[in-house]
Protein: Iron-containing alcohol dehydrogenase
Organism: Guyanagaster necrorhizus
Amino acid sequence: MKTFIYNVLPSRVIFGNGTLAQIVQEITNLGCSKALILTTPRQSTKGEQLKELLGDMAVDVYTNATMHTPTNVTDDAVGIVQKLGADVVIALGGGSTIGLAKAIALRTDLPQIAIPTTYAGSEATPIIGQTENSLKTTLKTLKVLPEVIIYDVSLTMTLPTRTTITSGLNAIAHAVEALYSKEANPITDTLAGQGISSIAKALPILVNDSQNLDARSEALYGAWVCGTCLSTVGMGLHHKLCHTLGGTFNMPHAETHTVILPHSMAYNAPYAQEAMAKVANSLGVSNAAQGIFDLSKSLGAPSTLKELGMKEEDLEKAADIASKSPYPNPAPLEKEGLLQLLRNAYGGVRPN
Ligand code: NAD
């Protein structure tokens, strides 16, 4: 077996159906008693319900979490944390809400409880992406790793079908890039295979039956496992491209991952054959990039950057940004190749 390094992260994970009921105990275990609940506007009712459950332990609900963690929203939320004297932040929602909790923790050192309701996986990582002046930068620090994650399958039942699909494919992207990461190791390899299979098995069921509890559990478990891959090894071209498209062109996170993934895989495939064979094996197909493209299509996921609102004339700028700052990736990063990748994604061409 090859030599490897694996960082075990200090996080407490509670997984199940109805687990939200344990939250008062979890706040108490942290030695806290004044929780600020965070949500997006769309999940404000859920936030209010949580506030009711917490009673005196909740200081308020802040409902303005925003995708790509703009720093002006963080400024506002930190002001409220200070004004109300909150001693813990609770993120109830997807990666956007969890991103806000992380940004608050980064500035205040407050503990966090994450209650993920999508499959993005941010709750499992010590990574924060923040956007200022249209540029998204990431930072890796244990300061932003949530102390507690409560996975409650019942909270994912309301996830709309389109978000279920794109968020699931976003999770698969973490696992795919983990398999060809420079820091790949036997543990993340195993987790990645399991995460890809779990999500690829659950999504076709959820498309037709969004309330299927077993498939919802399988998908949420897969999301945690894929998030763990993202947290422990470095990502490559795919995440870099999606990050550029999100931060600079304000493209929607999970949808962009969904559209780009088969194309970034095809770009890397000749240089990552072993990893691609593992992905193909987990999907039960012969070609990994085509397998992801076909799965995505069969689920009715968006397949072109065009339909996500990307302007064709911006593809060049995106290729430029993504090829400029160097980062580890199996295939060499050449602007012309990246531009072709983006053009394929723009038009939704099936990978060869
Ligand atoms: P999101 O959090 O923006 O959620 C999308 C929409 O779905 C929101 O309006 C939200 O309120 C709603 N929603 C979420 N769960 C729901 C549910 N169960 N029922 C009904 N509606 C629900 O989207 P996302 O894709 O989860 O997160 C994207 C953000 O997360 C991006 O900013 C991305 O950069 C970040 N992210 C960070 C990491 C990391 O490790 N730092 C990892 C993954 C994603």
Summary: The first helix runs from residue 23 to 29. The chain is about 50% helix and 10% strand. The chain has two domains: 12-156, 161-347.
